[in-house]
Amino acid sequence: LAIEPNSRVSISSTGTLHIDNLQLNDSGIYTCTAHSESGETSGSAYLNVGGIDLHRSPDPSTFPGPPGIPKIINTTQSSVTLTWDPPTQPLHSPLIGYNLEYFSSDLQTGWVMAAHRVNTNTIMITDLKPATSYIFVVRAENSHGLSVPSEMSEIIHTLNANTRTVTLQQINEARARLASNVIQLTELAATASTAIKVTWQIVGAEEYVEGIYIRFRDISGGGNKYNIATVINSGTTSYTVANLRKYTKYHFFLVPFFKTVEGQPSNSK
After folding, report:
1. Would you name any one GO CC term (predicted)?
2. Taking a C-beta distance cutoff of 8 angstroms, is the pair 140, 64 a contact?
3. E strands of 15-94, at which residues?
4. Is residue 118 part of a domain?
5. Residue 242 is part of which domain span?
6. How many domains does the chain have?
7. I need a surface site. Which of 86, 132, 145, 193 has the fewest CB within 10 A?
8. Residue-wise pLDDT tens digits, 50-68
C-alpha cells in the first residue's frame, strides 16, 4: 500500500520517510522504489515496533550534504576512473569516507556498491564488464549517517575488449562529428502485442558511432520517463524492444554515442 502523509507521517523531497510517535501498528516492511530513464531499483527494510526502549533516529540535518557529480577521468575495458567535489554544506562531524554505487542498464544487477568509505575524492573502479554502459552516484558519510546521493554521472562506457585506449583528440573529433545529424529513425513496426522492431540508418560519421541508445516512453498515460536500450554498433540496423505494454502508444528516438560522447538525437516517431 502507498504511504499517505498525515500528522505523524511525512516524506521529504529527497525521499526520507519520517514517522513521529511510533505505534505498534507501524511495524512492517517498507519499500522505496526509485525511477529514472535508465530503469528502476528498490530497497526494503523491516520496522519492528515492540519494545519500550525506543530510540530516535539521527537528525538528517546532521548528515553530510551530497558530494559533487562524479566525473570521468579515464576508461579502459574493465575500469573507470572518477573524481568528484566534496560536499559544500558545513559538516557536523568529520567525513568517514565516500561510498560509490553504479547501475548498468546492460546488466540485471540493480544498483551495486562499488566502493565503501573511500577516503579520497578520486578512485578507479575495477572489475567492470567490457563494452558496457554504467552510471555512478557517490554519497558522503560521517558519524551521523549517509548523505543523499550525488547527481548521477553521465552514462559511461567501458571499452570493447579489442579496443585500444582512446586519445583526447579522438574524443574531441567524435564530439564534433556527432554534433550533426548522423542517424535517422526509419521505421517502427510492431512484431507482437508487446514488442516493436526499431529500424534506423546511419548517414554519417559511422566510424564514431560506437553504439546507439534507443530511448522510448509510454505516451498513452502522459508520462515523461524515458526507458533506454543500448545497442552496440556491429553493423546491425534494427533492434526489437520487448516487454512493452499491450495496446499502448510509445514515442521513440535514437542517440548515437562514442565512449562518453553522446551525439545529436535522431528524428522521433
Report:
1. M band
2. yes
3. 17-19, 28-36, 39-47, 71-75, 80-83
4. yes
5. 168-262
6. 3
7. 193
8. 765 555 667 778 889 999 9
